[in-house]
Design goal:
heterodimer, A: mainly alpha, Serine Threonine Protein Phosphatase 5, Tetratricopeptide repeat, 47 helices, globular, disordered C terminus, B: alpha+beta, 7-stranded mixed beta sheet, N-terminal acetyltransferase A auxiliary subunit (chain A), Acyl-CoA N-acyltransferase (chain B)
Chain lengths: 866, 172
């Protein structure tokens, strides 16, 4: 280090103090480190590296702001030191600012090219940021510096893999394996590495090489994961084509785990049979295979269940009879859900209905279900007495589910009432009663039923969650919170806060939706934004594994993790939250008075105020503890990760009154177009935001993508009209190539020779019996500035019998009528209240409040969870 | 009844987390599920219904004692209520027993998490912790899975409750 700048060089006393300082930091003796730094700074207050080290130590001690300032100052004072840049990078990494951190690391590497620690961290950052060209370079350098470390070889192989160069991966692995001498038996890490090598060969299409590598290493016990061996073998053999050996490989897996349908699928495929597309020519053979396996594996349900997919006619009747009887006698609550997938085939659900109604009648007449007059495959020993009473109960339960799924909710309700008279204490009956009532449009009574179920087994969190969900659906948000609180941590500021900490997407979405239905849009937005925060945490979660998985050499699963993270934002919960939030933002943009209404509707009830006070107190306490911890200088290491700052906007007021709602909406939607191409709701949400942001090309492309999925979609129809109207009203049309693309795309969606009015009425003519389409066409009239009476006349068409108006659509129609201040909204509400018998959602607000009060009894205060 | 029982994949983790949060009192962040899956990829199993929802799972890990011998630790088994009574927990977890006297193929029921502990990691035994008052779970572990109470861990849970340490030998 001959060229050490004079500013950096310290006299020998301070120089050895600085070395001590580094050691104190590495061993996390923070207080001593701080003192040592101060000692140096007393004489050399402008020593950049010392300032940075002190800043780093302070950050570890929880004094981030002060620490960060020192680090920045230190960097400015010594721009060519690798230490200052490394420290700055560490701080930025702790703040999850990966891009800036990588820049700092790159600076550090300019001044210390071969620093292993910095190179390794840089590789992790490059992986996190998906900068794979740079990653390959970094990994190359690491391997050159330390070729004796396994993880450096693996690191280079994975870098090539991520960068899409499998040929190089293969070369690196082979080279590494040549350096290996004695590998002990049962070395799990070597086993994982070889399984990875096999996968690389498989992905390269070198199937026989892959197979022989697998077989050799399985035999020599280098690869020890038996299931992975068998699954990989069967998969590769299947790619090579159906042979006797392929068949045997699947049979071995079935023997090993008879409850995995994929294995049966593989077995049948090895016989040239596609289980998902059975034809009349191979049905008998497929069924015979499944029947044989059912006999061989009497305890396995899967071959019996698959036989129901394959069989038809009398054979189906015989098999399904056995299957249903077995389930009903065992009292399996999920029996209906299990066979429900057969219902897409009409003869099959009719057979099931006939059979189970028959079972019910037999039992009501005191008969036995083992009556041989109905053919049965395995004739059970003739029973002399009649059936166990529980079988009758499960029969009624099944039938109720069956009829409800056929939209015959009244019949379902009668059946479940009979069952409840028979046995009032089976929670399943009550939860299903709740489901029926929900489907009938009475969320309040539904929540009463599900809550009764919960009370029958207070220790069961499954019932607890269900009861809370139904309360939220009924708009009883405080009740839901009380119920959830029976299982959440007692020291959490509120039940919701605990569920939020625990990343409960179900809770966040349900409560967000409940607020939205109540018009408390600020609180709804808040929950949707927390969903985003949870996904940001999921995205960060991968960081730890960029290094960890190389050390553990669990590479196949690590690559799956990377692929999963690349698709993370397509998760249904994120998609739903982003769409819902964007719709609120669009609403606020179109009519800013909406946010005022929402904020004034947020006047809380007494109970809510109390709960809020309590939560505030608890949150304050936590903040105070944090502050206290930060001010007392203890040796405790708080790490470099940022602790979340106090939430300044717990009720979402700032979100709802954001001056740029469209920009916020776009930020939420922006990951979706690339990842979720097959969801029409996404394209419509993207359109709604893009067109308002003046991004006409993006808007019209969203419409094209939506059209490819469902050209006659009711919401899409309306957007065609909306786009033409908006675009043609532009003061100056878009020019140049973009303008041409937009115009051409628009006319491909909505032919320019057609007037909008004509287009709208043609759409209505194509779908006269579809309430959604009628509603869409009526909104089309409104959009095209037709008189309100005309819009209303058309909209009332949804009430015609043949339009099959669904409750959900009826609610949207009502909201629309109220939104345009239609004089006939009340008439529509009353008509729906008549039409949807047993529903409560069309009651007026006063009636509804009364029902909700009744649905929220107070007698359940005392409950203890064991 | 008929559910798909298979090794867990990375894209199951949010489903596993949901299956835990809606069902059991002890909860974990997503990172916990990732950590187990990426450390011992052959141990976690899931049960999935026809719609692809995770209705049950088992999470386990391998622990080395001071002498270097390893054993398995069943960390969490969750089966949603509609799928209880179906033998699912047993199918997910068990699968390592001594020769079975039952008349069907002895291998037909032998798989999955504990089997993987035995064959992949050569674990000699497997342990689990259970709340002392959780009778249902204790019965399941004892009667269906063959565990026996091995020790008591006082005040193991955050609320001060004791845990039973239950143990099962995995004859190598």
């Amino acid at each position: 280090m001959a060229s050490t700048p004079s500013k950096r060089a310290l006299p020998s006393k301070e120089s050895s103090l600085f070395k001590e300082l580094l050691t104190f930091y590495e061993t996390r003796q923070l207080k001593k480190g701080q003192k040592t730094a101060d000692q140096i700074l007393k004489k050399f207050p402008e020593h950049g590296e010392t300032l940075c080290m002190k800043g780093l130590i302070l950050t570890h001690m929880g004094k981030r702001d002060e620490g960060r300032e020192l680090v920045k100052k230190g960097v400015r004072l010594d721009l060519t030191s690798h230490i200052v840049w490394h420290v700055f990078g560490l701080i930025q990494k702790g703040e999850k600012n990966y891009e800036e951190a990588l820049k700092s690391y790159t600076q550090a590497l300019r001044f210390d090219k071969e620093n292993m620690n910095i190179l390794r961290d840089a590789a992790h950052l490059q992986t996190q940021l998906r900068l794979y060209d740079g990653l390959v370079e970094t990994r190359h350098l690491l391997l050159k510096l330390r070729p004796n470390l396994r993880q450096n070889w693996i690191g280079l192989a994975i870098a090539y893999h991520l960068n899409g160069n499998l040929t190089e991966v293969k070369r690196v692995l082979e080279q590494y394996e040549r350096t290996l001498k004695n590998v002990p038996d049962y070395d799990v890490e070597q086993s994982e590495l070889m399984l990875y090598h096999v996968r690389v060969l498989e992905d390269l299409g070198e199937l026989s090489e892959a197979l022989s590598l697998l077989d050799v290493n399985a035999k020599s016990r280098v690869i020890v994961d038996r299931v992975a061996i068998m699954e990989t073998r069967a998969r590769i053999l299947s790619k090579q084509g159906p042979t006797e050996e392929t068949e045997q490989s699947w049979r071995a897996l079935i023997q090993h785990n008879p409850d995995c349908p994929d294995y049966y699928k593989g077995l049948l495929a090895s016989k040239g049979i596609d289980l998902d597309n059975i034809t009349d020519s191979n049905r008998a053979e497929a069924l015979q295979i499944l029947r044989d396996l059912s006999t061989q594996l009497p305890r396995a349900d899967t071959p019996r269940r698959l036989a129901l997919d394959v069989s038809i006619g009398d054979e189906f009747q015989e098999l399904v009879r056995d299957y249903l009887l077995r389930g009903l006698k065992k009292g399996i609550p999920s029996l209906f859900v299990d066979v429900k997938t057969l219902y897409k085939d009409t003869p099959k659900w009719m057979t099931i209905e006939e059979l189970v109604e028959g079972f019910r009648e037999t039992q009501e007449n005191g008969g036995s279900l083992d009556d041989p007059s109905i053919p049965s495959a395995h004739s059970s020993p003739p029973s002399t007495s009649h059936e166990a009473p529980t079988t009758y109960l499960w029969t009624l339960y099944f039938l109720a589910q069956h009829h409800s799924s056929r939209d015959n909710h009244f019949r379902a309700l009668t059946l479940i009432t009979t069952a409840l008279t028979h046995t009032p204490t089976l929670p399943e009956l009550l939860t299903f009663k709740g489901r029926i009532l929900k489907r009938l449009g009475d969320p309040v009574e539904a929540s009463v039923a599900v809550n009764e179920a919960r009370l029958l087994d207070g220790q069961d969190r499954f019932l607890n969650t269900k009861a809370a969900k139904y309360k939220l659906r009924a708009g009883l948000i405080e009740d839901a919170s009380d119920i959830l609180g029976l299982f959440t941590k007692k020291d959490a500021p509120s039940p919701g806060a605990d569920l939020e900490d625990m990343q409960s997407l179900l809770y966040l979405m349900e409560e967000g939706n409940a607020y939205r239905r109540k018009g408390r849009l600020h609180q709804a937005l808040k929950k949707y934004h927390v969903v985003r925060k949870v996904f940001e945490e999921f995205e960060d979660d991968q960081y730890d594994f960029h290094g960890y998985s190389l050390r553990k050499s669990t590479l196949n699963i690590y690559l799956n993790l990377i692929a999963w993270e690349d698709n993370l934002w397509s998760h249904p919960a994120y998609v739903a939250s982003a769409i819902a939030a964007s719709q609120i933002y669009v609403k606020v943009h179109d009519d800013p008075s909406v946010s005022k209404d929402a904020l004034s509707s947020g006047t809380s009830t007494e109970a809510e105020k109390k709960a809020k006070k309590k939560a505030k107190k608890a949150a304050q306490k936590i903040q105070e503890e944090l502050k206290k911890a930060a001010s007392t200088s203890t040796n405790e290491d708080k790490g470099l990760e940022v602790t979340p700052p106090k939430d300044e906007d717990p009720d979402g007021f700032k979100l709802l009154t954001d001056p740029e709602p469209l920009e916020r909406a776009w930020k939420l939607l922006s990951p979706l177009p690339a990842l979720v191409r097959n969801n029409i709701d996404v394209w419509i949400a993207v359109y709604d935001v893009a067109v308002r942001r003046g991004k006409y090309l993006q808007a019209v492309r969203a419409l094209s993508n939506a059209k490819a999925l469902d050209p006659e979609h009711a919401e899409l129809h309306l957007r065609y009209l909306h786009f033409r109207k908006t675009y043609s009203a532009l003061p100056s049309p878009l020019s140049g190539p973009v303008g041409a693309i937009v115009s051409n795309t628009l006319s491909s969606l909505l032919p320019s020779e057609l007037s909008s009015d004509l287009y709208n009425s043609q759409y209505l003519q194509r779908h006269p019996a579809d309430a959604r389409a009628v509603f869409s066409a009526a909104r089309g009239l409104h959009l095209l500035d037709h008189p309100k009476e005309e819009v209303e006349d058309m909209i009332f068409g949804v009430l015609n019998r043949e339009a099959h108006l669904q409750l959900k659509v009826a609610l949207e129609v009502l909201a629309f009528l109220q939104g345009i201040r239609s004089a006939r909204a009340e008439e529509f509400r009353l008509a729906c209240d008549q039409k949807f018998l047993l529903s409560s959602v069309f009651k007026n607000p006063a009636e509804l409040a009364l029902l909700q009060r009744e649905g929220s009894p107070k007698e359940e205060q005392q409950e203890v969870i064991g | 009844m008929s559910v798909n029982i298979r090794p867990a994949r990375v894209d199951d983790v949010t489903g596993m987390q949901a299956c835990n949060l809606q069902n059991l009192p002890e909860n974990n962040l997503l990172h916990y599920y990732l950590h187990h899956l990426l450390t011992w990829p052959s141990l976690p199993y899931v049960a999935e219904d026809a719609k692809g929802r995770i209705v049950g799972y088992v999470i386990a890990r391998i622990v080395a004692d001071n002498a270097g011998a390893v054993h398995g630790h069943l960390r969490s088994i969750s089966v949603l209520r509609p799928y209880r009574r179906t033998g699912l927990a047993r199918k997910l977890a068990l699968q390592c027993r001594k020769p079975s006297p039952l008349p069907y193929s002895p291998t037909s029921d032998i798989v999955r998490s504990e089997e993987a502990m035995r064959t992949t990691y050569r674990a000699a035994y497997v342990v689990l912790n259970v709340r002392k008052t959780n009778r249902g779970a204790i019965c399941l572990y004892r009667d269906a899975l063959g565990f026996a109470v091995h020790a008591i861990r006082e005040k193991h849970y955050a609320d001060g409750e004791d845990a039973y340490v239950m143990r099962l030998s995995l004859d190598l």
